[in-house]
Amino acid sequence: MTTSATDHRAASDAAGSGGLRLLDVSLTLGDGDTAVTALDRVDLTVAPGEFVAVVGPSGSGKSSLLAVAGGLQRPTSGTVRVAGTELTALSDKERTAARRHHIGFVFQQSNLLASLTVREQLLLPLHIDGRLDASARARADELVEAVGLAHRAGSRPHQLSGGERQRAGLARALMTSPAVLLVDEPTSALDRVRSAEAVQLIAEQTHRHGTATVMVTHDTGIMDAVDRVHEMVDGRLS
Amino acid sequence: MFLALRDLRFARGRFALMGAVVALIAVLGVLLSGLASGLADAGISGLRALPVTHLAFDEKATSEQFSRSTVEEEDWRAWSEAPGVERAEPFGNTLANAQVTQGAEKGEQVNLAVFGMAPDSPLAPEPTEGENLRNGSAGIVITREIADLGVEVGDVLTADKSEVRLKVVGLVDDTVSYGHIGVAYTDLDTWRHLHYGLPGELPEAALRQATAVALTLEDGADTSAVEEATATRADTKETTFGASPGYTAESSTMALIKGFLYAISALVIGAFFTVWTVQRKPEIALLKALGAPTGYILRDALVQVVAVLVGATALGTAIGLALGSAMIGKAPFSLSAPVIATSSGLLIAFGVVGAVVAVRRITAVDPLTALGATR
C-alpha cells in the first residue's frame, strides 16, 4: 500500500501534472442493440485551482463524465488521471482508496447521512480513512466556518435548509484535501439567489484549496463564477 | 462504529421495536429453559443423583425398563466379579401409594417413587435431617417433594395393598424426583414388599430380585461377556433417563419449541435487517462513493447488529429471570446459570446468523447510484 502510494506520487511528479486529465475517454453502457454511447472520445484537462462547468441537457452524459472522472465507473476506453494517478489502471480496491484520498464529491441534493450532525458529516471521510485525530477536528471546524455553517455544526440534515445542506456537502468533500472536486447538479434543489451563492462558494473554495473542480449542471444561469464552460451533447464534449 | 451507533440513536424508535421483539423472545427462551430443566428435574433428578455410571436391565425389557425389568441375585454377583466393573449392586424402583397413619397430616395420601438399595451401599441417600436407612427397620428417607406435603421425620406411612408400615427416619432436603413423583429411599427388603404389592410373607423368589444392577464401570470397559452370561444389558445412566415415564416426550417437545423459537428469531431479525439495509441503500452507496471499503461498512453494520442483539437479549433475560424466580415452587421450574447462558447465547448466535445474511447485501450496492438521477 505504502509502496504503491509512493509510486503514484512518483508518477505524478514525472508527469508534472496534478489536477484532472481525461484522455480519449469513451463509455458504452449496455451491449448489443441496446448499447448507448454515454461518453464519446472525451478529452478534458482541469488544472489545480481551475473551476470548469459542464452543461448539457439530461441524458447528455454529464453524470457519466463525473462517474468516470471520479473513479465510480471504469470507462470502456481511454485513460483518466487524477493527481497524476492513472485511475483506469487501478483495481477496484485501489480505486476505492483513490476516491478516498484524491477525490471529493458534492452530490446532487448534497446526500448527507441522516443520523450525523454537520460536524460529524465532515469527520466521516477521515474516520473511514482511519485519520480521525485532533487536526481533522480542527479542519472540520475551519471548513464549517468557511462555508458559513458554524451556527449549524450540531444540526442534523432534517434541520437544515437546502442551501445549508449543499454547503455541508461541499465542506465534507473538502475535508480530505482532494486534488479533484466533482460537483453534481449543486443547484437542483435551490432557488436562483441560493444557486448563485452556492456556485460562488464552490468557486472560492476551488481557488483557496487549489482543487481541480468540475461541476455538471443543466442550469446555464449560474456561470458567472466559472473559469471555463464546456457543453456536452450526446456524449461529446465541446 | 462511527455511523452504527449514531444510527441506533437516530432511528431509536425502529430499533426499540426490534429490540422489544428480541427481548420478548429472550424472555420466552428463559422461561422455556427453566420449564425444561424443571421438568427434567421432576422427571429424572432421582436417577441423576445416583452415584453410578450405568444400569443393567433385563435384556428383554426394551422400554420403560424401570417398571418392566427384573434382575436376580446371581446377576449382580456376576456383574460385581466381571472385569472392568468397579462396583455392582442391586437397585429397586417402584411406584407406590401410601397414607399418613401417624403424624400431623394424618390421612393424607402420598405418592412415592420408591428407590430400594442396600443401606450400606453408595446408592443410599445422605439425609440432611434424621437418620439413614437400616436393614430390617422398614424405614424410609423422604425427599423435599414429600416433605412439602407436610410429612415429617418420625411420621408413619402405611402403603396401600402391601400394608407395609413405613417409618420416616430421615429427610434429604433437595428435589429428588422420578417421573414427577418425590423419591423415597428404603432398604431392599422393604422395597420388595412394596413392589410385590401383597400383604404377608413374600415368595422365596421375590427375596432375591431387584429392578436393575447399578454399576460403576471403568472407562471403556467391555462388558459384552457378562451381559450375555446374565441376559442383561447395561445402559449409561443418561440413556436410562429416556426410560423414565414421560421424560423423552417432555424433553423432545421442549427442544422442538426452543428450536422453533431460535429459527423464528433468526428470521425476524433477518427480516428486520433486510428492510433496514434496503432502506439504507442510498447511504451505503454514498459511503462507497466517499471511498469507504465494503469491509468498513460491513463492520459498522455488524457492530449495530451485535449491539441490538446483546442489549435486547440481556434485557429479556433479566426479565425472564425475574418472572422465572416468581414461578419456582408453583410450577416445575428451575433456573441454572449454564442453561440460561446457553439459551441466551444461542438466541444471539442465531440472530447474528440471520442478520449477517441480511447485511451481506451491502456488498452488492453500487457506489454509482450515489450520483443523481440525471444520468
What secondary-structure arrangement, pairings included, does this model have?
The complex is a heterodimer of chains A (238) and B (375).
Chain A: H1 2-15, E1 20-29, E2 36-46, E3 51-55, H2 62-69, E4 77-82, E5 85-86, H3 92-102, E6 103-106, H4 118-128, H5 134-146, H6 162-174, E7 180-184, H7 192-209, E8 212-217, E9 228-233, E10 236-237
Parallel strand pairs in A: 3-8, 3-9, 6-7, 7-8
Antiparallel strand pairs in A: 1-2, 1-4, 4-5, 9-10
Chain B: H1 4-10, H2 12-48, E1 54-58, H3 65-68, E2 71-72, H4 73-81, E3 85-102, E4 109-116, E5 129-130, E6 139-143, H5 144-147, E7 156-159, E8 165-172, E9 177-178, E10 181-186, H6 188-196, E11 209-210, E12 212-217, H7 224-230, E13 232-236, H8 237-240, H9 247-279, H10 281-289, H11 294-327, H12 337-359
Helix pairs in contact in B: 2-9, 2-11, 2-12, 4-7, 9-12, 11-12
CATH architecture of chain A: 3-Layer(aba) Sandwich
Round the mean pLDDT of chain A to the nearest integer and report it.
Answer: 88
- How many E strands of chain A? 10
Order of helices and strands of chain B: HHEHEHEEEEHEEEEHEEHEHHHHH
Instruction: Show the largest interface.
Output: A-B, 42 and 26 residues
Helix content of chain B: 40-55%
Estimated share of beta-strand residues of chain B: 15-25%
CATH domain topology of chain A: Rossmann fold
Mind describing the biggest β-sheet of chain B? Answer: 6 strands, mixed, barrel
Q: Identify the strand order in the major beta sheet of chain A.
A: 6-7-8-3-9-10
Structural class of chain B: alpha+beta
Would you identify the regions of chain A where 5 or more consecutive residues have pLDDT less than 50? 1-16
Report helical residue fraction of chain A.
Answer: 25-40%
Q: Which regions of chain B have little confidence, pLDDT < 50, spanning 5+ residues?
A: none
Relevant CATH superfamily of chain A: P-loop containing nucleotide triphosphate hydrolases
**Gross morphology of chain A:** globular
Number of domains of chain B: 2
